[in-house]
Every structure is written in structure tokens, then in C-alpha cells.
Amino acid sequence: MIQIQNITKTYNNTIRAVDNLNLTVNNGEIVGFIGPNGAGKTTTLKMLTGILRPDSGTIHINDYDIQKDALKAKQAIGYIADSPDMFLRLKGMEFLNLISDIYKVPTDVRRERISTLAARFELEEVLDKPMQGYSHGMRQKMMVAAALVHNPSVWILDEPLTGLDPKSAFALKNMMREHADAGNSVLFSTHVLEVAEKLCDKILIIHHGKTLFYGTLEELKAKYPDKDLEIIFLEMTAHE
């Protein structure tokens, strides 16, 4: 479960990237986080994971405060960042073992999970190769596997489908649905509104750091009848 209460983040004392944001992602829910470039999505996700500290407000992951109980909160999180270009000198298997070590995943458990994830995302042939030689899409798939290797209950995903081939994107979308159906929480940002429309239980639309809408797609479409999400999104953000 993710709970955000009144978080605000300002850069250089002038740019308010996130403005008094509130959000709850219940167990069993997938929430799509959408907004134009610079709307505050990545800043919010980085505050959720403890990478950035909010100026004000509180964040709880499974009832643990991300600032006061950081280790317990972060143990529950699987995070895919907005860039897959990290730890590139490591081989794929070295990277997955490093992440497994950080989260204290037992050897026998990690072996099974790595095998399952590698098969699902077609990584078996590159695990023994340095990641600096991977394509962008292959690096993205490795970040997905690394985020999930410790079987986290809360998924926080920043544009997770970017760079994935159709088969891998389909696999990840299915895993997101399976994860939520098992009683866990998923929050992901995306520019692909069709994915948000088909996959999400709720949608958060943000612009200039402020919430324009949060609720179900049915609730949103009741306000904008006979329009798809793309048209609704363009109309809402055009007036802000």
C-alpha cells in the first residue's frame, strides 16, 4: 500500500515540481500516473522511493514512513527508474546477484527467481555478458528483472515499458495485473495512454505538480462523455 499525504517539492526555492500531492494506492490496485513532461511524475516517484526528500508532507509504504523507517519501507519496494543505464560494467548475472545481496534474497530463492525472470524476458543468452554491450531495450529488461528479484509487494515503475519489445511489454503488463490481483500495489508512470486506459484501476493526472484528477476511468469519462483518455488528457492539460 502506498500513502502520500500533502507532499511538496521545490527546486532552487523557485520551481515547485510537486504541489501538495495526495494519493493512496490500495492493495490490489494498479494506478497509472500520467502528465506532460515536467509535470512532476519522476520527482514524485523518487520521493516515494526515498531518493529525494519532500519539503513537506509524509509518505508511507505498507504503513512504514519512508523517512523514519526507510529500510523497512524500501524492502517492500520494487523500483524501475527512468533510465536503465547503470552498473553497466557488471555482467547481467553479477548485477542481479548484487541486487539480491542487497535485499538478502537466499541463494536458492534467487536462483529460481532469476531463472523465471530471465525466461520471461528472454535474458538467458546475455546474463554472462557485460551490460554495457546491451541494447537499450535489453538494459530495460534487466532493470525490470532486478526490480522484481526480491519479490516486492509494492511496485513503483517510472515509464517501465519504454524500450521494451512488444513481447516483453506484454509480459510486464501481465505481471503487473497478476501482482495487483494477488493483493499488492502498483504505481507506474506512462506516456502511453492506451496502456493506462486498459490496465489501470485508477488514474492520477498531474500537471505543474498539481493533481488535475484522481479516480477511476469510469469517473473520469463520466465528466467527459464519449471521449477517450487521450482526448480527455489533452483537454485537461491544455487549460492549465
Provide key terms for this protein.
single chain, 240 residues, alpha/beta, Rossmann fold, six-stranded mixed β-sheet, 9 helices, 25% strand
Helix-strand layout with pairing:
Layout: E1 2-11, E2 15-25, E3 30-34, H1 41-48, E4 56-61, E5 64-65, H2 70-75, E6 77-80, H3 92-102, H4 107-120, H5 136-148, E7 154-158, H6 166-181, E8 185-189, H7 193-199, E9 202-207, E10 210-215, H8 217-223, H9 229-238
Parallel strand pairs: 3-8, 3-9, 6-7, 7-8
Antiparallel strand pairs: 1-2, 1-4, 4-5, 9-10
Question: Would you kindly provide a written description of the structure presented here, covering whatever features stand out?
Answer:
Helix content is 38%, strand content 25%. The chain has 240 residues and is an alpha/beta fold. It folds into two domains: 2-76 and 153-238, Rossmann fold (3-Layer(aba) Sandwich), CATH 3.40.50.300; 84-152, no CATH class. The strands form two sheets. A six-stranded mixed beta sheet has the order 6-7-8-3-9-10, sandwiched between helices. Strand 1 and strand 2 (15-25) form a beta hairpin. Helix 3 (92-102) runs parallel beside helix 5 (136-148). The longest helix is centred in the last third of the chain and has 16 residues, at 166-181. It is globular and about 50 Å long. The mean pLDDT is 93.
